[in-house]
Design brief:
The chain is α+β, with helices and mostly antiparallel strands and 245 residues long. Helices cover 27% and strands 33% of the residues. It has an 8-stranded antiparallel sheet with strand order 5-4-1-2-3-6-13-11. Strands 7-8 form a two-stranded antiparallel sheet.
Length: 245
């Protein structure tokens, strides 16, 4: 098995209907992970250029066509420092990080998934997909990121969610909700969009500052530290950077 050192984890969102139309909605950069689980995602990737983006998107669509795929799905790749890319896997479902793609493309992926399931035709051709701006997503988990991401359990006593233009919070918890050790530690997904990557990062910093959760420890301070780091601001990070640090 080939070792891809210093790899970026980059995935392409695809949609495929029963009539044979397959399109992609651009890429998501998912390299910031711990224990091979994603923590922060962004779209587009600061690592790809237009040529590589086009090649990878075409390969993602060809892969879906090769297996007669129908549904929303994600083709995942590893990309090395020389920008060679390697197929990793396909996720035949909606991804946790799908909101960043929705924010930059304006496509409601859940709606299109339902349309496809009913036998409907995708209303988009590939040329109709024109991403705009930049989006980041921070997965807010009940864990202590500064003690090896140790899970934190308890009852949520207070939640103050951020708001404002370009800010989206996807969650299902509320004050009184119990975070138990038996399920995934995800509390919510905080997504911020703006015209440029720099503005999106600033908006996310402000949103994280506003986000208050009491009752359990969360990884919000970790996200704040990542967003303040020079490496992240420059887009210079890879898949094992969290473990290395």
């Amino acid at each position: 098995e080939k070792l891809v050192a210093g790899a970026r984890h980059i995935e392409f969102q695809i949609l495929a209907d029963h009539q044979g139309r397959v399109i992609h909605l651009g890429e998501r950069e998912c390299s910031l992970q711990r224990r091979h689980q994603k923590l922060l995602e962004e779209s587009p990737s600061p690592f790809l250029d237009d040529h590589l983006r086009r090649r990878m998107g075409e390969v993602a669509c060809r892969a879906a066509r090769a297996v007669d795929y129908v549904n929303a799905g994600t083709i995942e790749f590893l990309v090395d420092r020389e920008r060679n890319f390697f197929f990793l896997e396909m996720n035949t479902r909606l991804q946790v990080e799908h909101p960043v793609t929705e924010m930059v493309t304006g496509v409601d992926i859940v709606k299109e998934q339902v349309r496809i399931a009913r036998g409907g035709k995708l209303p988009y051709a590939q040329d109709d997909i024109r991403p705009s701006g930049w989006a980041l997503e921070c997965r807010v988990n009940a864990e202590d990121a500064f003690h090896n991401f140790l899970p934190s359990t308890g009852v949520l006593t207070m939640i103050t969610s951020p708001s404002g233009p370009g800010v989206r919070v996807d969650t299902g918890v509320y004050p009184g909700f119990e975070i138990s050790p038996y399920y995934d530690s995800l509390i919510s997904k905080l997504i911020c969009w703006s015209r440029t990557r720099g503005e999106a990062i600033m908006r996310m910093r402000r949103a994280l500052e506003e986000y208050q959760i009491l009752g359990v420890k969360t990884n919000i301070p970790f996200h704040q530290a990542i967003l303040e780091s020079a490496g992240f601001s420059a887009g210079q990070y890879y898949k094992r950077v969290v473990e290395v640090q």
